[in-house]
TrEMBL record:
Taxonomic placement: Bacteria, Pseudomonadati, Spirochaetota, Spirochaetia, Spirochaetales
Coiled coil spans: none
Keyword Chloroplast (UniProt): no
Transmembrane segments: 7-28, 75-94, 106-128, 159-182, 220-240, 272-297
Compartment(s) of residence: Cell membrane
Species whose genome carries this gene: Spirochaeta isovalerica
Official protein name in the record: Multiple sugar transport system permease protein
Record keywords: Cell membrane, Membrane, Sugar transport, Transmembrane, Transmembrane helix, Transport
GO biological process: transmembrane transport
Length: 304
């Protein structure tokens, strides 16, 4: 028994050390740093200036930061609804016995293989361009002049265009997850429902959705993590200076830590402490969503 304990300690020690070094220490340091003014992340502790909750007060006093919270909520909520609905439709269709399922599944997932930078560039340059973009060409061909003249990348429309492009790329990922969940449901349930006279809609609402609660629960958590960490798309749609239509908490944190101007006319000093405060708030957001999802969707209801 003692030998087994020693072997357990030997095998667990590298993993525990890696966890403490890579995750636990940075987390504690970030939380601690959020209560200090720290000019750069490389400053030693002697240069840290204690400000208490001053960093948090400054964040919520900033209109740009508050707008970033609004933007990320809209991406998470409205974008999540759109992605999940479209993904559910595709997953139900592809699991209903259509031929060529593997081909369509691979085609839908393809945008996830391409890097986010390349995808954003494709949308900005080749889909949203007001001169030769895909939408402009299609609407012009259909004779919809007003739609063809729509300025997708103008300040007023940037957020909608960015969210549309991002959601398009994320649909395929959740299609695969939902397809796996649907295919796991025993076929006997659907056959019994058909014998009882249940139509497709009844089968979907009474069998598919209840038995996919676990999959949907995990998907909501994953969507929340990726949405709150929204960064690359925002930087690609506003490469020079942050715009109110594209700013997100992650971009705001980047501006504070690495010095990109918060507004074109208002350069700020670096403040890694405030950036750490943003990171703490983002972590709390994810924990809050995780707790809410666990409360609303309970595992005890998931029974076959």
């Amino acid at each position: 028994m003692k030998r087994d304990n020693k072997m357990t300690v030997i095998f667990l020690t590298p993993a525990l050390l890696s966890f403490c070094l890579v995750f636990l220490y940075p987390t504690i340091r970030t939380l601690f740093m959020s209560f200090f003014y720290v000019r750069t992340v490389t400053d030693n502790l002697g240069k840290w200036e204690f400000v208490g909750i001053g960093n948090y007060i400054k964040l919520f006093s900033s209109p740009m930061f508050r707008q970033s919270l609004v933007n990320i909520f809209n991406i998470w909520f409205w974008g999540g609804i759109a992605v999940f609905l479209v993904a559910l439709v595709f997953s139900v269709i592809l699991t209903s016995g259509y031929k060529g399922k593997s081909f369509y599944r691979a085609a839908i997932y393809l945008p996830n293989v391409v890097s986010a930078v390349a995808m954003a560039t494709m949308w900005i340059q080749y889909a949203f361009s007001s001169k030769y973009g895909l939408f402009h060409s299609v609407f012009t061909f259909l004779g919809l002049e007003k739609a063809a003249a729509f300025q997708w990348t103008s300040p007023d429309n940037q957020f909608f265009a960015m969210t549309l492009a991002y959601c398009f790329g994320m649909v395929g990922y959740y299609v695969l997850i939902f397809m796996a969940g649907i295919e796991k449901i025993p076929v006997d349930y659907f056959e019994a429902a058909r014998l009882e006279g249940a139509n497709l809609f009844k089968q979907f609402t009474k069998i598919t959705m209840p038995l996919m609660r676990g999959v949907i629960k995990s998907s909501i958590v994953m969507w929340s993590v990726t949405s709150i960490a929204f960064f690359i798309w925002s930087m690609m749609f506003s490469p020079l200076d942050p715009d109110v239509g594209t700013i997100t908490p992650m971009v705001y944190m980047y501006n504070l830590v690495f010095g990109r101007n918060l507004t074109p006319t208002d350069p700020r000093l670096l403040n890694a402490g405030a950036g750490a405060a943003v990171g703490v708030l983002m972590t709390l957001m994810i924990i809050g969503v995780f707790g809410l999802v666990n409360f609303l969707i309970r595992d005890k209801k998931l029974q076959y």
